[in-house]
Amino acid sequence: MKRTSLNGLWQLRNDATGDLYPATVPGVVHTDLMAAGIIDRPYYRENEREYAWIAEHSWTYTRMFEVDEASMGFEAQYLVFDGLDTFAEIRLNGVFLGETDNMFRRYTFDLTSLLRAGRNELEVTFHSPTAQAAAIAKQIPYKIPYTGEREWFITDTHRNLIRKCQCHAGWDWGPAFLTSGIWKNVTLYAIDGLRIEDVKPLQFHTDNHVNVQTALYLDVVSEDTYEITVSLAGVERKETLNLPPGKRTVIVELELENPALWWPLGYGAQNLYQLDVAISASGKIIARHPLRIGLRQVELVREDDAHGQSFFFRVNGVPIFLKGYNWIPVDCFASRMTREVYADLIGSAATAHCNLLRVWGGGIYENDDFYNLCDEQGILVWQDFMFACAMYPWDDAFLANVTQEVTEQIRRLSAHPSILLWSGNNECEMAIDWYTESRADRERFRAGYHKLFIETIGAIAQAESPNIPYWPSSPSNGPGLYGDSNATNRGDTHYWEVWHGGKPFSEYLTVHPRMSSEYGFQSVPSPETLRDVMDRGDFNIASPMMDYRQRSAIGNRAMVEHMMGEYFLPTNFAHFAYLSQVQQAMAMKIATEHWRRLSPVNMGTVIWQLNDIWPGNSWSSIEYGGKWKILHSVSKRFFAPVLLSLAKIDTGVEVWATNDGPTAVQGHFTLEARDFSGGVIREWRGSYTTDPCTSTLCLTLPHETLASLGDLHTFFLVLRGDDSGDGLFNWTFLRPAKFCALQKPAVSLEISADAQQTQILLQTDRPAFHVWLDIPERRGTFDDNGLLLLPDSPKRIIFTPKDQRGPVQPADIRLTHLRDTY
Ligand code: BMA
């Protein structure tokens, strides 16, 4: 077999004007127009509106390529597009090859009788996605409703009728760029004998023994006797088979004794193996397909219990408390989705002790880099299929299209040990109750939903991937269990009453889910991140441009309103951004610590959301460009495997020890009441012994004990363990911060830097709260940040730069703490 990449330089034509531009494949029209200087930065101010016309046009990509005589000697020639976004017509030398309508599918064309020796011309015309969706909508006799029809910038996209990344139509954290283009690789295959389309290893575990069934999906061009060799972990199996032409599936079984298993982060090593597949005919190897896999067993445990029904995962028999974030696309434009961006974000998740990322259903099935990095770092993946916040069609053509999509994606991703769960969609089950049309005709929409997500996708997942659980929707009660999909006593829960419902942060403490798979609170990114997309006059939370960058219906008011209950309103924008991030971190800390304390009744905390698609206000913990918000630093502490936390309950304060790790832990702690000059006014000591996946209540301070020390706004509580783990230092105010008698601290920094690292010694004369170190012009991470600094405990912080700009200078560092903001 010979592979020729057809990536690289193509030519792009605007079909309306005939204008021509150089183009890059993989890529999309927007990035080509940017490179050609036709459009400016798409995320800058209101450029999104300016560039809406791009989605209304049709665009043609062309390229010439040479085929030599030697290549023409092969038995067959196939052209494979790994991804076309979305409505494409393909021609070779003017001959129509076919058309496409699903961005998530791979398309293969047989060129054997069409390819010429010498010069060939390949042409791909993309039709307007908005026009196509409108045409489909006209053919459907009733309305299939979706969220975002009127709310976001481009209206009436009918995004739910087309198999394209749903958030390309805009979302409540991102812009509408309905892209078109060849967004993945294009390859020409010259084939003798057969081609391996996919390799899908399934693994079945019994006591230290793994049966690996590797399914080879073959496209056989000519009948022959083929020798298939599959090897893994030193075990090899050969099969000799006569295969006639056509699509063939061959399953090769291997038996492994005591292999080293793959474990999620915090539970063991991420052992990975190479699975080699080679096929030969007449003694010559004609196809190879190496894959990296990990061996692990996954179970979703749903058992009736005193609280309803459990919902948790075991990996290799060990219950895993899921901690992490929801993941959205890293950019609107394919060519910017680089491995470097993925590595940075996934590395940041692992540093914050995350063991899970949920690939949310309104985005894309992620690039291979994403899953490879998750495999390497021990991050489990909750994989939604790409449907979100809408009703979807269930006619035969739609189901056939989705069947192909889902089958291909399962086969593509199955080797990754990080895959924990296939999940049908995001919030579509709940959404049956959201829209006038679906409420009025509930049975019809429910039947359609059932057909798509249970009978079609669920059945495919079960057949293709029987060893990975399938969950119909997030949130859901389970397959076919309709009613309150977001119930807290079973299945997973999205809890949004604090952000969307405007309830106080304390409301989190009233919620007792089995698995909290979405909850979040917004913040404003740093001024440096916004500087690329806004002008000087825009830097005010009430500016029209800030309104424009806010896509959640309740807007920036929600942030301001919560802030007014807890803090003084800052007078400058940098402080507003800082305080919004403090507030977000505290909301997530309260919720996460509470839900971790509920383990093992609750078995997961998955925050909405890790990353951003553009620089804007959102629920993310990491800004567009990779800079950590305060939440991300704080989550490194509240996600730590062993956590000491303080619960403010109606009758006082409790001290809890939570242990997610695989073995029991024990230790001692000190709880101090300190006044705002930093002096200890009272101290309590205690100890804990906590089993895996449980929490223990270690100490209760009744309200009367606290009140006996003085007014609650005159002191605060500090909790420290006898070790130095990320989760073993904690603290709390006892009243909203604005009522607390904070004193102005004098914080000093001593810096020693070389090119690799900067050490910062922080000291203070008074307690300094939410101390935030920032090096606005540099890229890098602090090993601790967003912290409490006490006069008697200087802190040494290490900054590791990600850029190559030499040692950090003292003047580069900016320090902010709560008392600075008023
Ligand atoms: C959810 C998600 C997203 C949304 C987020 C914030 O429930 O599934 O659709 O962006 O809330 O509103």
Biggest beta sheet attributes: 6 strands, antiparallel
Shape: globular
What is the rounded distance between the termini? 69 Å
What level of helicity do the residues show? 10-25%
Mean pLDDT: 97
In total, how many beta strands? 47
Query: What class would the helix/strand composition place it in?
Result: alpha+beta
The radius of gyration over CA amounts to 28 Å
Strand order of the largest sheet: 3-2-4-9-6-7
Q: Keywords, please?
A:
822 residues, alpha+beta, binds beta-D-mannopyranose
Explained architecture:
The chain has 822 residues and is of the alpha+beta class. Helix content is 19%, strand content 34%. It contains 16 helices and 47 strands. The strands form 13 sheets. The chain has a six-stranded antiparallel β-sheet with strand order 3-2-4-9-6-7. It is globular. It binds beta-D-mannopyranose.
Topology record:
Blueprint: E1 2-5, E2 8-14, E3 20-25, H1 29-35, H2 47-50, E4 59-67, H3 69-72, E5 76-81, E6 88-92, E7 95-99, E8 107-110, E9 118-126, H4 129-139, E10 169-171, E11 174-176, E12 186-191, E13 194-206, E14 209-220, E15 224-232, E16 235-243, E17 246-257, E18 273-281, E19 284-288, E20 291-293, E21 298-301, E22 304-305, E23 308-309, E24 312-315, E25 318-320, E26 322-327, H5 339-351, E27 356-359, H6 368-377, E28 380-384, H7 396-413, E29 419-423, H8 428-431, H9 436-440, H10 442-464, E30 470-471, E31 493-494, E32 516-518, H11 527-531, H12 544-548, H13 557-566, H14 573-597, E33 604-607, H15 630-638, E34 642-649, E35 652-659, E36 665-675, E37 680-690, E38 694-702, H16 703-707, E39 715-721, E40 729-733, E41 747-753, E42 758-764, E43 768-774, E44 780-782, E45 787-789, E46 795-801, E47 814-816
The structure holds beta-D-mannopyranose (BMA).
